[in-house]
Every structure is written in structure tokens, then in C-alpha cells.
Design a protein that fits this description.
The complex is a heterodimer of chains A (306) and B (377). By secondary structure, chain A is mostly helical. Chain A is built from 16 helices and no strands. Chain B has a 6-stranded mixed beta sheet, sandwiched between helices. Chain B has a 6-stranded antiparallel beta sheet with strand order 13-12-11-14-20-21. In chain B, a hairpin with a 3-residue loop joins strand 1 and strand 2. Chain B is built from 9 helices and 21 strands. In chain B, helix 2 packs across helix 3 and helix 2 runs parallel beside helix 4. The chains are: A mainly alpha (306), B alpha+beta (377). The interface between A and B is large, with 37 and 37 residues.
């Protein structure tokens, strides 16, 4: 049929798919070291101490979570506990509605992530591809909201949520965060890199605008979807201030809020607090290891902190 | 099946660029029409206007008897093949082919039947489970055509579909495209910048430049009777030789070339001779006092092509430009001599450094007004 061989075609970059025929070269991947040995670079002299600095709080948290209350109060801090107290974890689960908080946080996070993926993708697509009056102005306004600190909009948002009757509900945590300017921006930037011919071909093939978005554009937007999902997950899971002012009954608390109940007015049970911390951190750590490259891509592509 | 007609179509982009300027065309049912012109001439925009991917600033577009100016692409009953194929990378070949039918809610058995039919016509049976990234250039090209044809559109639009293929495959696909058109008889509008492709494929072709149509006609007609210097320089490969000359009292002179042409108005002219028309003077034409116009060609380069050889050289006189040149000539000679190319039989044995006399039949010498570029008949 044709003289071309399949391996040659398969070498072409994947995502470009249809657009790659113009002959762009596959980007060279960084090769792993052939002998697999650790090669020293002067940068390591800087990076290793930095890594240690980053790791110390984590290690300390883990150690403290296994200490008895007396040892946590010792000064200088005890870094190697004399007696391990794994019972701290069981006590956390007994003493506080920890499972409830975990489920609450999961509900809020999943709903917020889903909302952001859907709504930000739709808005981002409109900004990227649909020509409408005032598009650039509206987009700049959306971007400008990134510069407004949360503390400024906190009270107005609270009043809106109160009028919606969502104070002290999980809905009050979800609704205000369903779409974020950051996600819209990220989707828009990504969609603009997709070859527009794919969408034109789909429109000629009979797809509607939404059909194009859901059947052609989104299936090709894995990296953008993953980045927005990961960053929204992280933000929502760790959010503290908004739940603090919205939620007051313990049953509706999220993890971050629930953790504060271990800090009493007169006494803080540091070992229990740290055990709860470790447990609340596990999903985040798991996600980080699974989706590390999307964290980095998301942060690098926007210049925002995660 | 349908005819397509454009009436006074203008497309102005933001910033006032007129990509298409007052273009009128008729494409009868079943015709293979080729829009050809240098890059930036508006041919792709014209095609996108027919497809509905761009909105005309003014003018009327009809497909069949329906005015389609405000009709969305999916309701125009057209199919388009893009230059980079635009295959959906996340779908298998089968789903690529079926996508348009599924979007139109065609029943599943009908989809299966039509995909099977088109894939056997185009030889895609073995590839249905692959993804576009696993296909070669030629295979992708077939899938793109299949995706367009499977919907049995009234009008088939192609935007430089062969330009990403290597030379050999391009010639092969060109012939297959023509065969396919003969078999299916779908009204086709084809855009290319390659005039050889245009000549070989077209029932009729439209030469465009700067958003306007310069000439519409059968390829042979345009080759034989170009209406302007631009068309003459653009159509034909190698390009027509052009020399500056003067007409005075029915006598035309350009360098050493001199011949009678009754009825030519006096003034500056451009003389055009196709490389294929030039023959060695000694062999073909008897010399005499009123002999045919001859050129003294100093050969500096020969390119053997097998049966024929391209002979490049210079003659005395000044070169003229048609405006269709892709590039400025490298190593352009001093103005005193003009470059001339001839297609001669290889058996003639021309070598660089030769000096030879070449001639062309007087009726194959074209004249153009030097100021307006219009052909003088």
C-alpha cells in the first residue's frame, strides 16, 4: 500500500496526533543513566540540605504522633521516643468523629474537583475558541480575581452563602468554590494549543459546540484535567479558613477544622493532634506520588503557589 | 449531489485584510474544480467559506438551491479533508470513520455497513483498530478521505490534502483521487498551490491571486491561453520564459528576438515562450530570410530528466517577472542577459557551455502588455 513503515509513524509525537504530519521532530526524552549510578552534581550540595529542611517537620510530626503526651512536652524535643504509643491513632478515632470528618472532606473535595473540571473546562473553552463580544475584557476580569486575596471576599461570600441558606452545611463549602479563575485560565491556555482543525473537522462531521468539547477536546486534554484536578484537590482538602467561618457543628466539620478540636483552651494533646494530622495527610501524599508531574506542571505553568 | 455557486463573495478579516475579494464561481454538479494560486492568495479562505468555517463579509453562497450563508457547517452536507488530516488522535480508525455518522444518529448496522464499504474502497480494512499515531502518512491521508466520503456528502472539499506526502506517494494518491472522483462523481472543490496537481486533477481550474480570481477554465485552456502575465508565469512547469520587449508598427523586438505580429499596439511588451515550445533552430526550422524568430542560447546548466532535459541558459535581452515567482532567482545575472529555460530531447546531447540557436513557432509566442500584464491576442 505505502512504502512507509509503521514504527516510523509510531515515533511521531502522540498528542499532536493529526497535527504532527508537518514533520515536527519528536522531543528528545531525557535518557536514564545507562549504568543507573548516582552521579554527583554541585547542585546536590544545595539541594540535599534543602531537602532535609523540608523533611524535618514531616518526620517530627510522624515521631510526635507516636509519643506519649509527656514526651511531647519534653525540652529539648525527643526525636527518638522511649516507648512507642501507636495507640494514639486508635484514640483519635475513638475520641473524635474522625471518620465523619474524613467523609465530609472527601465529599466536599470530590464535588469541588468535579465542579471545577466541568465548569472551568467549559468557561476555558469559551475563552479559547468562541468569539463573543467583550471576550478579552471578561477574560482579563476573570484573571484579575486571582489578585484579590481571599480575606477581601470572605465576608461578602459569607453573606451570599448565608442567603443561600448554606451556612453550616457541606454545600456552603462546595458552592463558592465550584469554579476558580485559575482553572479557567489553565484550561484556556491548554485548549489553545490543540490543533483547531480537529474541532473544525468535528463540527463539519456534525458535532455541536458541546459535542466538540466533550468528545474531541476533553479526551485530548488529559494533562490539563489532571493538573486542575490535582491542584483543586489539594486546595480544597487543605482549606481551613473558609470551613472555620462557615461550619460550627462538629458533625459537618472537615478534617482541617476537626484537627483544631485537639487544641484546647487549657491543654493541647499534641500527640493526638499529630496522629490525626498524619492520617489527614495520607490522601494528599498518595495523590502527590501518583500525580507528581501534574503538580509540577501546574505550578510551573502558572507561577502560582500550589 | 449538488452544485455550488459563489456570487460576489468577499471575506474581510479584522484589520481590513481582504482574503477573498468579489469572487464569483459556479461549480456544476459532479465537477472537480481546483482552486490554485500562490500561498496567501485566498484559496483556502474561499474553501473555508464554502465549508462554513468562515462567514462571508458579503456575497451569496449556494449549495444546491439553498443559500447557505447562515447555515452551520454540519448542516451544509459537505465534507472536508484538511491539510494535516485532523484525524481524532484518541479514536481508532473505525471510530474516526464512524464519528460523523454517529453524530447524525445513523443506526448502528448502517454505520457498520458504510464504514465497511468505504474502508474496502480505500483499502483500510487492516487498519480499522489502529489509532492515527500508528499510521503512516499515506494511510492517514486515506483515513481522512474515508472519514469525509463515508457520509456521502453533496460536496467534497479538500485543502491541500497531498502536500504532506512525499513526492512518489503524492503522484500515486493524485491518481487515486481522480479515480475516486470518476467513480463517485461527487462535486469536489480542491485547493492546492501546486499547479501540476491542479492541471492533472481539474475538470476546470481557478487561478487566484491576492483574493481575486484571475482566470477560470479547463487546465489545457488556461495553459494555452493565459489571460495575464501572472497566469502565464504561474501555470506551466518549468515556468514560461519572459523577456522585455517593444512593439512598434506590428513588429515586436526583444533582445535579438524579432518577429511580426499584426495588430499589436505600439509600446512596451513582455514576450513569453514556454520552455516546451523551444526547439533547436537548425533541426526543426529551415533557415531563410523570413525565417522564424531565433534566440542565441548560452547554455550554463543542464538537468537531465530521462527522456527530456531541462536546458538552462541566457540570451541577450532583459528578463521580465510575472509576479508569480516563488523565490527571487539566486545568482541573478547582470541585466544585460536574460535567463531562458528550454525542454529539449535528451538525445540532443546539450552540454553546459554550448551555444545554440533555439526557436519557437510564432503562434506559440505570447505577448503581454508590460504595464497592465494583460495578454495581447
Amino acid at each position: 500500500m505505502t512504502g512507509d513503515t509503521i514504527p516510523e509513524a509510531a515515533r511521531l509525537p502522540r498528542r499532536a496526533g493529526a497535527g504532527d504530519a508537518a514533520g515536527e521532530e519528536p522531543r528528545p526524552r531525557r535518557q536514564p543513566r545507562e549504568d543507573g549510578r548516582f552521579l554527583f552534581s554541585p547542585w546536590h550540595l544545595v539541594l540535599i540540605p534543602l531537602a532535609v529542611v523540608m523533611l524535618v517537620p514531616m518526620v517530627w510530626m510522624l515521631v510526635t504522633s507516636l509519643e506519649t503526651l509527656n514526651e511531647t512536652r519534653h525540652f529539648p524535643p525527643v526525636l527518638l521516643p522511649h516507648t512507642l504509643a501507636p495507640g494514639n491513632y486508635a484514640q483519635v478515632l475513638r475520641q473524635a468523629p474522625f471518620a465523619r470528618w474524613f467523609v465530609n472532606t472527601l465529599i466536599v473535595t470530590v464535588a469541588t474537583v468535579a465542579g471545577n473540571l466541568l465548569l472551568c473546562a467549559m468557561a476555558g473553552y469559551a475563552f479559547a475558541r468562541i468569539k463573543f463580544f467583550g471576550r478579552e475584557v471578561v477574560f482579563i476580569l476573570v484573571l484579575a480575581t486571582l489578585m484579590i486575596p481571599f480575606q477581601v471576599v470572605m465576608i461578602p461570600t459569607f453573606i451570599i452563602v448565608k442567603h443561600l441558606g448554606l451556612i453550616n452545611t457541606l454545600g456552603g463549602l462546595i458552592v463558592p468554590n465550584l469554579a476558580q479563575a485559575f482553572g479557567i485560565f489553565l484550561f484556556r491556555q491548554f485548549f489553545r494549543t490543540l490543533p483547531v482543525e480537529l474541532e473544525e473537522a468535528a463540527r463539519i462531521d456534525g458535532a455541536s459546540r458541546l459535542g466538540v468539547l466533550f468528545k474531541i477536546v476533553l479526551p485530548l486534554s488529559g494533562p490539563a484535567l489532571a493538573t486542575v484536578a490535582v491542584i483543586t484537590f489539594l486546595y480544597t482538602w487543605n482549606d481551613f479558613l473558609w470551613p472555620l467561618i462557615t461550619i460550627y457543628s462538629p458533625n459537618n466539620m472537615t478534617l482541617q477544622l476537626g484537627l483544631t478540636t485537639f487544641e484546647g483552651t487549657h491543654q493541647t494533646t499534641t500527640n493526638l493532634l499529630m496522629a490525626a494530622n498524619v492520617m489527614s495527610l495520607l490522601p494528599v501524599l498518595l495523590l502527590f506520588f501518583l500525580a507528581q508531574r501534574y503538580f509540577i506542571r501546574g505550578i510551573a505553568s502558572t507561577g502560582l503557589k500550589g | 449531489m449538488a452544485q455550488v455557486s459563489l456570487e460576489g463573495i468577499t471575506k474581510e478579516f479584522a484589520g481590513g485584510v481582504r482574503a477573498v475579494n468579489e469572487v464569483s464561481l459556479e461549480v456544476p454538479d459532479g465537477e472537480f474544480l481546483v482552486l490554485v494560486g500562490p500561498s496567501g492568495c485566498g484559496k483556502t479562505t474561499a474553501l473555508r467559506l464554502i465549508a462554513g468555517l468562515e462567514k462571508a463579509t458579503s456575497g451569496t453562497i449556494r449549495i444546491g438551491s439553498q443559500v447557505v450563508n447562515g447555515v452551520s457547517p454540519r448542516d451544509r452536507d459537505i465534507a472536508m479533508v484538511f491539510q494535516n488530516y485532523a484525524l481524532y488522535p484518541h479514536m481508532t480508525v473505525y471510530r474516526n470513520l464512524a464519528f460523523g455518522l454517529r453524530e447524525r444518529r445513523t443506526p448502528k448496522p448502517e454505520i457498520a455497513r458504510r464504514v465497511a464499504e468505504i474502508s474496502s474502497i480505500l483499502g483500510l480494512d487492516e487498519l480499522l483498530k489502529r489509532r492515527p499515531a500508528q499510521l503512516s502518512g499515506g494511510q492517514r491521508q486515506r483515513v481522512a478521505m474515508g472519514r469525509a466520503l463515508v457520509r456521502e456528502p453533496a460536496v467534497f472539499l479538500l485543502d491541500e490534502p497531498l502536500s504532506n506526502l512525499d513526492a512518489k506517494l503524492r503522484v500515486q494518491m493524485r491518481a487515486e483521487l481522480k479515480r475516486l472522483h470518476q467513480k463517485l462523481g461527487i462535486t469536489t472543490v480542491y485547493v492546492t498551490h501546486d499547479q501540476v496537481e491542479a492541471m492533472t486533477l481539474a475538470d476546470r481550474m481557478v487561478v487566484m491571486s491576492a483574493g481575486r480570481t484571475l482566470q477560470i477554465g479547463a487546465p489545457q485552456e488556461i495553459y494555452a491561453e493565459p489571460v495575464s502575465l501572472f497566469v502565464a508565469g504561474f501555470i506551466g512547469s518549468p515556468a514560461m520564459n519572459l523577456l522585455r520587449g517593444r512593439a512598434a508598427g506590428s513588429r515586436v523586438t526583444a533582445g535579438e528576438l524579432a518577429f511580426e505580429r499584426p495588430g499589436v499596439p505600439d509600446g512596451e511588451v513582455v514576450v513569453g515562450i514556454r520552455p516546451e515550445s523551444l526547439v533547436p533552430a537548425g533541426a526543426a526550422v529551415p533557415s531563410g530570410a523570413a525565417g522564424p524568430p531565433c534566440l542565441d542560447l548560452h547554455v550554463d546548466l543542464v538537468e537531465p530528466l530521462g527522456e527530456t532535459t531541462l536546458v538552462h541558459g541566457t540570451v541577450s535581452g532583459a528578463a521580465a517577472e510575472s509576479g508569480a515567482e516563488e523565490e527571487q532567482a539566486i545568482l541573478a545575472d547582470a541585466a544585460s542577459r536574460a535567463p531562458v529555460t528550454a525542454v529539449l530531447a535528451t538525445s540532443h546531447g546539450t552540454r553546459p557551455g554550448d551555444r545554440m540557436r533555439v526557436t519557437a513557432p510564432p503562434d506559440r509566442i505570447y505577448l503581454f502588455d508590460a504595464a497592465t500584464g494583460e495578454a495581447i491576442r
